[in-house]
Design brief:
With 212 residues, this protein is an alpha+beta fold. It has two domains: 16-56; 60-211, Lipocalin, CATH 2.40.128. The chain has three helices and ten strands; from the N terminus they run αααββββββββββ. The protein has helices spanning 17-38, 43-56, 60-66; strands spanning 70-78, 87-98, 103-112, 116-127, 132-139, 146-153, 158-167, 172-184, 187-195, 201-211. Strand 4 (116-127) and strand 5 form a beta hairpin. The protein starts with 16 loop residues before the first helix and ends with a strand.
Length: 212
């Protein structure tokens, strides 16, 4: 009787079988992922998505800011201390909406003192989450940024904001405030109050904007 060689008739794996198995597993995993992606979000997930979308969407306050887009002529008046003689200069500004109307960018050019070139950049916005207006400012007169937050009243005709700015004399940040008063679509005034030599706030800057 013929003797069977061990393993002679045992089944051998088909050539390429490991590769086919791996491909099958990958296709199965992809199908599972696709099915999971098709599943509708839970009510909790949907609520979170709606909150994010609402917070990111430009609204009426952003539309009001957009009306300021354009070129403006500036009349700048500043005071070094309460009762000090005013110093005056002129400049230009251009406002433009950015990021889908969510923010308003301001670019300012002018002179300071004895014809020293001045350049500044500002970003204004309205935070849908905190329900506050805010503004940031940087210029070539320093290396710090000023940040303010506040509220607007009277259909946005008057905005009062508070914040801090770095004071080289004090060697630290000091509290400042600003008031923007809109006269009409072509004229508005922005003024800033900062600490005087005695530490009490006074009007240190006023800028009259006239649309070009």
């Amino acid at each position: 009787m013929a003797r069977l060689t061990p393993g002679l008739y045992s089944p051998r794996p088909e050539r390429g079988y490991p590769m086919k198995l791996a491909a099958f597993l990958l296709l199965a995993a992809a199908a599972v992922s696709a099915d999971e992606a098709k599943k509708a979000p839970s009510p909790e997930e949907q609520a979170i998505m709606e909150k994010y979308m609402k917070a990111a969407a430009p609204g009426p306050e952003h539309q009001k800011m957009a009306k300021m887009a354009g070129k403006w002529k500036l009349k700048v008046t500043s005071w070094m201390a309460p009762g000090a003689p005013p110093q005056q200069s002129e400049g230009t500004a251009e406002y433009r909406t950015i990021m889908g109307g969510r923010f308003l960018e301001e670019e300012v050019h002018g002179t300071m003192g004895s014809d020293q070139p001045f350049e500044g950049r500002g970003i204004d916005g309205y935070d849908n989450v905190t329900k506050e207006h805010f503004g940031t400012w940087i210029d070539n007169m320093g290396t710090s940024a000023m940040m303010m937050r506040g509220k607007c009243a009277g259909e946005g005709k008057k905005c009062t904001m508070k914040g801090k700015m770095a004071d080289p004399i004090a060697g630290k940040e000091v509290p400042v405030s600003s008031i923007m008063t809109v006269k009409d679509d072509n004229n508005f005034t922005w003024e800033m109050h900062s600490p005087g030599p005695d530490g009490k706030p006074f009007k240190s800057l006023q800028i009259d904007y006239t649309r070009q």
